Structures are given as C-alpha cells and as structure tokens.
C-alpha cells in the first residue's frame, strides 16, 4: 500500500537517510555555559545552617562544635566568604514553626545575599520531605540560583542528578522522626501505666528529693484564695485583678495575673491530689500542634497521688461552675431534685441551665426515693382471664408511630434543641412554661405546667399575633447531651417520640415513652454505613421512609410485631400507674436529692477564708514597707 506516492519501504529509507548526520561544514555547535560545581574555585557568599533539636544543656557542646567546624571549613576555601552562621537551638526540624533563624536565612537568599548554604545533613536542614524538597527547588529557581550542600550525604542541590537522591534522604529523615515519635509515645505510655507520672512545676507545690510534689504553704494560700473566691462568685477577671493588686507572684515570678492563668489553676486536678495524664496530645509529629484529648488517647487518673490543697468536693464544684458559666450560671451550686410521692414518684426534674449533671447522677437521684426491695421500675404482672371476659392475650396494640396523624402528641429531640408540637401545647392548655421530668429506670419523660419563675422552668411556647400560642425551640445545650446518654441515643441522630396526656382534678401531665422512638438518620451516615463491612454495620435501626436530608427509621425490635401486648400495654407505666386512685398528686414538688449533695465549703467559711488570706497578705506588705522605710532612714 502506498501513502503520498511513496511505498512503505521508500518511507523507511528516507527516514534512515535523514538520520545519517549533517555535514560539519554547514553546522556550528555553540556549547552551553558550564554549570558551576560545588568544587569549582569561584567566589561564593556562604551561609552555614546549624541546628540542635533540644535546648538541653548537654546539647550546647554539639551546638558550639558545629559552629566552630564550619567556620574553619569556610576559611579553607580562598574564594568563600562567610556571610553568617544561622543557628536554631532547641527547635525540631519537622516543621518551620519557630525556626526563626532558618526562615531568616531563606529570606536573605531571596534578597540576593547568599550564594551557597552549607549544613551538616538533610535531617539538620529539614525532617519534613515537603519542606526540604520545596525549599531547595525554590532556592534553585532564584536568579542567580542558590545551592545547598549536605556534607554527610555529599549532595549538592544544583547538580542535575541531585533531586532523586535528596528525595530519598529527606524521606529517610522524616521517617526517622516518625520512628522517634512513636518510641517516645510508647515510652510515655509505659511510664504512665506504671504510675510514673510527670509532675511539672506548679504553684502551691515544691518537689522533694524524689521528685514528688510537696505543699509549699505560702504558695498554697494563693491557690486556696483563687478557689475560695471563684466558689463565692468572683470571676476569673476579678480574681486576677485582686491577686495583681495584692502583689502576689506567680510561680514564674510574674506580678501580673491574667484570667487565663486563673482558669488554668482552677482546672488543674493536681490541687485536689489527683493526677490526670494526657490532657492534650499531638496528632502529627510534623506540625507539633497539640489538641485537647477527648478520649482520642488513653488517659490515666491517679487518685490521692499527693497531698491535696483543695478538697475534692470543692474542686468538683468549681469544675461544675466553670462548665456552666457559658450558660449564664454563677453562684450557688444547684442540686438534682426528685419527686418522692405520688404518680410521678422517682421522676427527676431537669435543670435547663446546668450542664454539670451526668446520666449516672439522674439514675442515683431517681433510685434514692425507693425503699429496699421496692421494684424500680414497676414490674408487669401475669394476666389471668376470668370466664365471660374477652381474652386479649396474643393481641397487640398498634404503635401510634405507624399512623400518620397531625394531631399526635409528639416531641422532637436533637443534641442541641427540643421542640414539642402544637398538640402538646393544646393538651396543657397553652401554658408558656413547663417543667421537664425524667424517670431514668422506666425511661419516661413527663411534662407539666410551671410558673415562669420556677427554678427549672422551660419556655416552650410563644404567643401568636392572631391569638393562641406557637411552639418554640428549647435550647438544650446544657442538658440534652445527658438525656441522649440516659437513653443510649446517637448524638448525630434526630429522635421523635409520641406522648399521651393524663388529666385529673383539673390538672394535666404529658407522658412520653422514650423507648418507643422514631429515628431520623442523616443520609450521609447511611451512605457511610452502606460502604462499611457487613460485620461493622449498625443493625439497631432499619430505614423506613426517606426524607430529603434524613431517613426515618424504627428500632429493629419492631420488625416482628405491630406494638405491645394488649395486657402489657394496659399495665404500662405511663398509662396505668398514673391512673390508679389515690396516687395522683401530680403537682407534687420535686425535693433535693441528698445523695447528690457534696460537702462544698459553705459561703460563710469561704468569706472567712478569703478575708484571712487577704488580711495576712496586707499585713505582710505593710511589714515589708516598714522595713524598707527603716532601711532608707
């Protein structure tokens, strides 16, 4: 077959003819400039970079030896001029953060002050492969280019074949840092697990010959003053101003106190005799950024590790106050309150503005009102059917969730908000404020009217312009996390629960069975679950109805039935016990739970302690002034 008039063989012959060469008489070759080599004896302005990775005093000799060695090295080259030795001491090489001298050196290169950088090794220059390759490329692209010579590896970055070797060496340097980081973490973990904990310098304590914390009584007075003032209601800002004015000195010798310093002391568990390890950790060995440990790393709490300055109860009280300061709470510590008599016996009143209570606190408070042997929750008894009565054994009461009815009494929970529908408002005769009560053992939620000034009142409705009331979202940042924990709910899910009203003697209460919930699962969560391995999938819920952003699901236990047994339903706690004659008392006020009381220092003792410590300091200052005045005379 011919193409363009030439056969395939003719085309091959023409190509061969073209590559036989060109007559040297008609071709002039202009050679490129010779690229300067590291060993060329040409004038160079040389910078030396020196780094030691710790500021330990033992590293000082290494630091000085490096500087002296490279000064001599530069002097041996006649055409080299030492511009400066840039030295970072006590800085890690895995990040440019805090490597001020290194950054200044690169800046000087860009300003045309340096022709060559000499350093001991790749690991001294950078232990991060991205930084190492990126910076050397950047220096090579300058006009004129700046080269880096790594003495140990015998690498010069302006050589054309240097980058592959440099990439390998930089990778090894980075991995060496990674290995050291893992070894250090393992060592720390072994120390902690064997009770060898770190005890850094801390106000109120000194170290004995064994490195253990012992109380420094003079400094301990400052610590007590800080805790006493905060318990009494002073803010961190007010405490800092007071200590500064009185002339107290920090552990580091500073006379100016800041609110952050005060908060740091208030949060330190060492003041109550305990030691908590790993409060922060470093996820990446490359950037060294610390992060608060919220269960991401193993922690150890050593109780009664040393003598306490502050009682455990006072310390816990302070932590509760700090946690709840963002919700506007200051002053007196609240207590969990539980109903002791009536149909709502064992229900615990929810404080909407206090985040200090845990799920276990609610459980203990509820159980405290039951006598020994009294069932909690109430047991369902076996049913016997008499002759002539309808036998409903085997029949089920269908769940209300299966019927789409806008008139249903329902409440919707998220981890941050709670909202009751309009039917709930109507059932409680359009009151604006309610009290929320929980029975942890029976997993029931009760809602009843409350006065606006009730200590646990929640604003659940707002008046409409056209009359009546409309539901409003209840912000539950302080208590909804605890409710989710009580009922074993997933924080990212939204839950809807159906309720019933019970009414007697002109009084009403709404009751919700928290075990019978509809669950709204985000689509993103379902997609992630679908991609998971079969053995890792969550089978507690099965999707039923798809919404735009979520899928409605029901507990898998509902799969084989329509609802609860007829007789069990008739005995259900939220339907039966509350209807029994003589146990109504629906307005029974919740009473403080004695099991949740802590022996927090009472206000009068706080005032006395604050006064004594401050007065002692004032007298001490006056005595010092007297001595100075006498000395001046």
UniProtKB/TrEMBL annotation:
Transmembrane portions of the chain: none
Family matches, as SUPFAM superfamilies: Resolvase-like (SSF53041)
GO molecular function terms noted in the UniProt entry: DNA binding; DNA strand exchange activity
Superkingdom classification of source: Bacteria
Domain called Resolvase/invertase-type recombinase catalytic: residue spans: 45-195
A Pfam family matched in the record: Recombinase
Recombinase domain boundaries: 202-328
Annotated protein name in UniProt: Site-specific DNA recombinase
């Amino acid at each position: 077959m011919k193409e363009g008039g030439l056969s395939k063989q003719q085309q091959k012959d023409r190509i061969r003819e073209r590559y036989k060469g060109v007559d040297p008489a008609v071709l002039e070759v202009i050679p490129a400039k010779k690229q300067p080599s590291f060993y060329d004896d040409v004038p160079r302005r040389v910078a030396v970079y020196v780094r030691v990775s710790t500021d330990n005093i033992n590293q000082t000799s290494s630091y000085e030896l490096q500087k002296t060695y490279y000064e001599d090295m530069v002097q041996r080259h006649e055409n080299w001029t030492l511009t400066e030795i840039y030295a970072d001491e006590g800085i890690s090489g895995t990040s440019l953060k805090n490597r001020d001298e290194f950054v200044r050196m690169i800046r000087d290169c860009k300003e045309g002050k340096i022709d060559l950088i000499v350093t001991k090794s790749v690991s001294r220059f950078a232990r991060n492969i991205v930084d190492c390759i990126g910076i050397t490329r950047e220096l090579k692209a300058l006009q004129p280019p700046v080269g880096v010579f790594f003495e140990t590896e015998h690498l010069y970055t302006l050589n054309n074949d240097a980058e592959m070797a440099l990439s390998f060496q930089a990778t090894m340097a980075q991995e060496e840092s990674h290995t050291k980081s893992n070894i250090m973490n393992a060592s720390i973990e072994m120390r902690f697990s064997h009770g060898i904990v770190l005890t850094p310098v801390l106000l109120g304590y000194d170290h004995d010959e064994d490195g253990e914390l012992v109380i420094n009584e003079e400094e301990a007075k400052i610590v007590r003053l800080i805790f006493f003032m905060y318990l009494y209601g002073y803010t961190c800002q007010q405490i800092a101003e007071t200590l500064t004015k009185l002339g107290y000195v920090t552990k580091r010798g500073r006379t100016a106190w800041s609110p952050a310093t005060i908060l740091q002391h208030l949060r330190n568990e060492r003041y109550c005799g305990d030691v908590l390890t790993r409060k922060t950790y470093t996820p990446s060995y490359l950037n060294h950024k610390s992060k608060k440990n919220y269960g991401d790393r193993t922690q150890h709490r050593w109780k009664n590790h040393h003598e306490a300055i502050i009682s455990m109860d006072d310390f816990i009280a302070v932590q509760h106050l700090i946690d709840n300061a963002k919700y506007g709470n200051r002053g007196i510590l609240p207590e969990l309150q539980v109903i002791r008599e009536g149909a709502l016996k064992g229900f615990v009143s929810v404080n909407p503005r206090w985040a200090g209570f845990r799920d276990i606190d609610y459980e203990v408070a509820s159980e405290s009102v039951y006598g020994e042997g009294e069932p909690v929750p109430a047991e369902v008894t076996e049913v016997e059917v008499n002759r002539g009565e309808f036998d409903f054994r085997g029949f089920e009461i269908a769940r209300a969730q299966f019927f789409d009815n806008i008139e249903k009494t329902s409440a919707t929970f998220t981890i941050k908000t709670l909202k009751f529908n309009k039917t709930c408002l109507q059932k409680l005769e359009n009151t604006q404020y309610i009290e929320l009560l929980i029975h942890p053992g029976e997993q029931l939620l009760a809602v009843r009217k409350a006065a606006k000034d009730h200590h646990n009142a929640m604003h659940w409705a707002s008046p409409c312009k056209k009359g009546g009331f409309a539901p409003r979202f209840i912000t539950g940042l302080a208590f909804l996390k605890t409710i989710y924990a009580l009922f074993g709910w997933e924080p990212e899910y939204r839950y809807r629960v159906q309720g019933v009203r019970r009414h007697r003697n002109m009084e009403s209460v709404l009751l919700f069975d928290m075990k019978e919930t509809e669950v709204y699962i985000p689509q993103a969560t379902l997609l992630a679950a679908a991609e998971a391995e079969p053995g890792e999938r969550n089978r507690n819920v099965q999707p039923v109805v798809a919404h735009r952003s979520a899928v409605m699901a029901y507990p898998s236990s509902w799969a084989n039935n329509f609802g609860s047994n007829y007789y069990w339903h008739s005995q259900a706690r939220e339907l039966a016990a509350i209807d029994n004659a003589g146990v109504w008392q629906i307005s029974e006020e919740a009473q403080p739970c004695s099991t949740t009381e802590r022996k927090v220092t009472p206000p009068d003792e706080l005032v006395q302690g604050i006064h004594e410590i401050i007065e002692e300091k004032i007298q001490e200052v006056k005595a010092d002034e007297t001595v100075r005045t006498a000395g001046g005379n």
